[in-house]
Each structure stands twice: as C-alpha cells, then as structure tokens.
Amino acid sequence: MSRKTIAKKNFADKDAIHKSRLVSMLINRIIKNGKKSLAQRITYTAMDLIQDKTHANAIKVLEKAIKNITPLVEVKGRRIGGSTYQVPIEVKTYRGTNLALRWLINAAKKRTGKNIIVKLSNEIIDASNYTGNAIRKKEEVHKMAESNRAFAHYRY
Hints:
This protein is mainly alpha-helical. The chain has a single domain (21-154), classed as Ribosomal protein S7/S5 (Ribosomal Protein S7, Orthogonal Bundle). Helices cover 56% and strands 10% of the residues. It has helices at 21-30, 36-54, 58-69, 93-110, 116-128, 133-147, and strands at residues 73-80, 83-90. Strands 1-2 form a two-stranded antiparallel ribbon. A hairpin with a 2-residue loop joins strand 1 and strand 2 (83-90). Helix 1 (21-30) crosses helix 2 (36-54) and helix 4 (93-110) packs across helix 6. Part of the 30S ribosomal subunit. This is Small ribosomal subunit protein uS7c. One of the primary rRNA binding proteins, it binds directly to 16S rRNA where it nucleates assembly of the head domain of the 30S subunit. Belongs to the universal ribosomal protein uS7 family. One of its GO terms (cellular component) is small ribosomal subunit.
C-alpha cells in the first residue's frame, strides 16, 4: 500500500428515532458487552427525561451540552532531549466531540444515584447550563494547556 493514501474516516450513522449523528455517537459510547439495544434504551429514555425536565428540544440541549464540553486545546507528551514536555495542541472537531462524549459519560457514571438514565440526563442538563463535572474536566484540561503554554513551540 502506498504511503500517500490517507485512511478514510468512518462516521457513525444517524440513529433511528432522532435522526442525529450525535445521539448515535452517544449510544456507541454507552455500549457495554455489545448490548446496543440496552444502550439505546438508556439514551432514548434519558432524552425523554431531558425533554420533560427542560421543556425544550432534547437534541438541542444535548448539542449545547456537547458544545460546552468540547475542549479547544489539550496537552500531549512530547519527548525532547531526554525530558518529556506537556505540549499544548489544538483539538480537531471530531476528536473534541469524542472527548466531550467520553467526559460526559464518565461524569454521569460518577454521579451519586443508582439509575444511569437519571444520572445521564442530569449531567447533560448540567453541561448545557455550563455546570457539572464534565465542564470541570474541560476547564482542567484548558488550565493545564495554559500553564504549559511556554512549550507551545515544541508543537509538531
């Protein structure tokens, strides 16, 4: 295979109910042990709960939450001359969305309570209101990048 060809990205298909790629990506991040129908039930029930609590379109609330969580910069370890520097780099949109979804689900799992549906819906609502643990994670990453701004010239 030639070195000049670039691998084609496989983007998630739209989900069946909301016709949204973002919901489909969320379902794919929730899957455990290959049980996609369970992940779909969790996601769709959480979306219905968001609709009831906020009286707004659940897709719009989710999009706003993901937009609020998506990081602009992150740090990456770069080894130069025997020492490792944390170099701040810009995050591409697809990776930013993936990081936001990962942080959202991890923050929902760490919330108190026993029902993942309620925890996920509350975390999405909190993130859309710019509060919650997922937002805290984004601010932590931005703070780390800001403190290592001096090493930005090591970017590759």
